[in-house]
Design brief:
The chain is an alpha/beta fold. The chain contains eleven helices and twelve strands. Bound molecules: iron/sulfur cluster (SF4).
Amino acid sequence: MEVYLAQPRGFCAGVVRAIEIVERALEKYGPPVYVRHEIVHNKYVVESLKAKGAVFVEDLSEIPDTAAPVVFSAHGVPKSVPEEAGRRHLLALDATCPLVTKVHREAEIHYRRGREIVLIGHAGHPEVVGTLGQLPAGAVTLIETLAAARAFVPRDALRLAYVTQTTLSVDETAEIVAALQQRFPAIVGPHKEDICYATTNRQDAVKRVAPLVDAMIVVGSPNSSNSQRLKQVAARAGCPHASLVQRARDIAWAEFAGIASLGITAGASAPEVLVEEIIEAFAERYDLSVETVSAVDEDMFFALPRSLRGHEAAE
Ligand code: SF4
């Protein structure tokens, strides 16, 4: 079996930073360290941090009055969350990815300039909940589909702006943005789209691999938006069978019978150790030749919050 590994894949700079924030907080303050929501959408990562003393909650009300820190997940939080943490004198550490924070700031600027804002994204995803929660209710309208973009009726077509979730399909979002721009030529958007570099690069790599393979495995969790998009992008790029797999034990082996070439990628929240585990599982059943298909080199790095920087990082 020919295996084509998409490069880049797996952890992005925002995920590395978020996990490191929890780990450094555990070192500095000792357990428990509370984490609001899964720090990143990956069960393996969450379980590993739990084993070290992290306690995951969905709401601050689940945290007792304590001196222990609470970390906000990489997806970002509505403004009400740090406000509540402040009222309760909780020690808050914000692991929101800086690229999500950038979208929050863009939305605030549009709002201050009197623009109605469209957020392109998926309802219920914590990043979308966080971005909507930066502004008063009604300031931002969520648009999920091309059909919704075509039906959207703004209050004033001349004072309109859009922002997007960071982990969307690049191609689908371009279609939605084009529909909005065609209907509302005055709409204001980001200089460069809000879809982050990691999402874009992982989708580019999948587009290169998809035409070469009979099947594609995306290593990632079902609640990981960018992993779901990678699966969708693989299918759109011509891969007849794309599936999301969390661990080697979840592989539906019958689906891979008769397959001669396999693509493997991983969502931005999936650690490389899980990719290795899956390659090993295939190696136990097939003679493998493994090749990397590279779209772009990545060297992005986000600094930790000042309070958690070690001596070396602060210099
Ligand atoms: S996927 Fe993009 S926005 Fe999300 S944490 Fe990674 S770099 Fe940040």
